[in-house]
Amino acid sequence: MYILGDDINTDDIVPNSALTLRDTNEVAKHTLEFIDPQFVKNISKYNILIAGENFGTGSSREEAVNVFKDLGIKCVIARSFARIYFRNLINLGIPGIHLNWSPDYFSQDDKLEISLSEGVIFNITKDLKINFEKLPKFLTKILEEGGIINQLRKKLLN
């Protein structure tokens, strides 16, 4: 897992200069480059992001979620999310977990297991069980289907 700070907005996630690129893989190469220039280089060893307050504020651009999906992020845990960003995560199949976490819950490189159905994060490294409020069933269903587009495809094909 990788820990970010507070107030990470969509311009921080995907700089405006990267939005002119046509290839999504090229856009992803610029993820968080002004927060951590080594983020993309090092992200292959992480699949969970931990963030502070106000994660994903700013514009509602979907690219700010797509880049994390392209980079293999499986879950984002934050103290608070911008509402639209949170729904974009869910709609693209990435769980967003609201958790008022304490610094002693996580350290960079800790190994985590997450059960959305039970509302539990288990920090294997620290042998710590952390409960969180489970997502509503309709959001869990979207995640189970791999995102809103997959859910709609399945409904239309049945």
UniProtKB/TrEMBL annotation:
Q: Which InterPro entries match?
A: Aconitase/3IPM_dehydase_swvl, AconitaseA/IPMdHydase_ssu_swvl, LeuD, LeuD_type2/HacB/DmdB
Q: What protein name applies here? A: Aconitase A/isopropylmalate dehydratase small subunit swivel domain-containing protein
Any single GO molecular-function term of the entry would be:
hydro-lyase activity
Q: Which residues form the Aconitase A/isopropylmalate dehydratase small subunit swivel domain?
A: 26-94
UniProt keyword list: Lyase
Q: Does the keyword Lyase apply?
A: yes
Listed Pfam families: Aconitase_C (PF00694)
Protein family (similarity comment):
Belongs to the LeuD family. LeuD type 2 subfamily.
| SUPFAM superfamilies, alphabetized | LeuD/IlvD-like
